[in-house]
Amino acid sequence: MKRFFILTAMLATMVATAQQKSEMKRTTDYFQDEKIVLWNNDNAPHSNGLTGEAYEIATHRLVNTTEAVLYAYRANESKATGQAVVLCPGGGYAKLSMDQEGFLMAQWLAKNGITAFVLEYRLPNGHKEVPLEDAVEAIRVVRKKAKKFNIDPTKVGIMGFSAGGHLAASASNIPPVEDRPNFSILFYPVVIANHYTSHVGSFRNLLGKGFVQADADEFSMDKLASEHTPPTILLLSDDDATVPAAGAAIYYAALRYHGVKAAMYIFPEGKHGWGNYDKFSYQKEWQHLLLRWLKELK
Questions:
Q1: How big is the chain by its Cα radius of gyration, in Å?
Q2: Count of H helices and E strands in the chain?
Q3: Collapsing DSSP states into helix, strand and coil, what is residue 285?
Q4: What is the pLDDT of residues 34-88, one digit of tens each?
Q5: Is 76 helix (H, G, I), strand (E, B) or coil?
C-alpha cells in the first residue's frame, strides 16, 4: 500500500510539472519590429539535442530553446547612427535572461539610434558548437538585411552578458574574420577558463559535465585573442562574485597585447546580472560611457 501511495504521488508530481510547463506562456509584453527565425534543430548545421518548444521557467527566463530567433528593434530615425548590435542574453548557458539583457537593452539602444537584434540562441546542452553557429548566422543575416533596416553592414557589432558575453567574445575570436562582428560589447562576461576568475557552470553547460581543462582552454578568450579581434569594451562590477572582474581584466590585457582597441570600466558595486535594470546605481554612467565609445569608433 505504501508503494502505491508513493507511485501515486510521483505521478501527480509529473502531471503537475507538465501542466505547469504548458501553462507557462512566453511573455510578449516587449514590442519588437520584426521576428526573424534563423533556423532550428532540424535545419541548422548541428542540433543541441533538445526537442519541443522553448518555455519560461520564470518571467523572461527562457529554457529549452530549439530554434534561433532574432527580435529586431529599429533605431530612432532622428538619431540613427547606421550601427546595429546583436544581443546575446546571459544565463549560464542554461537559460536566457531575455528582459534586462535582451528586450530592455534593445529598446534603449534603438532609442539612442542603434538598431538592435535580440538573439534567442539555442542553448548548448553540451553541444559546444551550437550557440556560436547561431551567433555567426545572426551577424550574417543582419548584414544581409542592412538595406532593409537602414544600417551599415560594416558597423554590425555584438553585445553579450555573462555567458552571453562568452558567446559574443567567441563570435569575435573563433569564426573566419569576415564573419566576425565589427565591434564587441561585453557586460560582466565569462571569458577565462579557470576556477578563480570564471564561472564553471557555464563551461559545464557548454562543453558537457565531463569536460576537462583542455576542452575549456579551447574556449578561453585570452588564448584566442588576436590582432583580428574587433574593438572591444568591457563593463564590469568589482563586487561580482559570480563572474569575477579579474577574468575580464585578463582578457583586456590579451587584447591590448595584440594591439586591439579596447576599453574597460569596473564599477565599485553592482554584483552580477544588472544589464539595463534601473536598480543598478551606475546605470547612467555605463550608458554614457558606452554611447561615447560607440560614437568614437572608427
A1: 19
A2: 9, 11
A3: helix
A4: 999 999 999 999 999 999 999 998 888 999 999 999 999 999 999 999 999 999 9
A5: coil
Enter the C-alpha cell of residue 240: 561580482
- Please tell me the predicted confidence (pLDDT) of residue 210: 76
SS3 244: coil
Q: Has domain 30-296 been given CATH number 3.40.50.1820?
A: yes
Q: In the structure, what pLDDT confidence band is assigned to residue 13 with cuts at 50, 70 and 90? A: very low
The residue among 51, 73, 118, 65 whose CA lies nearest residue 93 is 65
Contacts of 245 (CB under 8 A, 6+ apart): 188, 236, 237, 238, 266
Under DSSP, is residue 81 helix (H, G, I), strand (E, B) or coil?
coil
Domain boundaries, the chain: 30-296
Q: What is the dihedral of CA 49, 53, 58, 62, to 10 degrees?
A: 60
DSSP state of 256: H
Which pTM value belongs to this model? 0.89
Give the integer Cα–Cα distance in Å for 229 and 252: 11
b/e burial code for range 33-56 (CB count within 10 A of at least 16 → b):
eeebebbebeebeebbebeeebbb
pLDDT at position 18 over 50: no
Any alpha helices (H) in the chain, and if so which ranges? 2-23, 104-111, 129-144, 163-173, 200-207, 213-217, 221-224, 245-257, 283-296
Rounded to whole angstroms, the Cα distance separating 113 from 169 reads 24
User: Contact, 151 vs 73, CB < 8 A?
Assistant: no
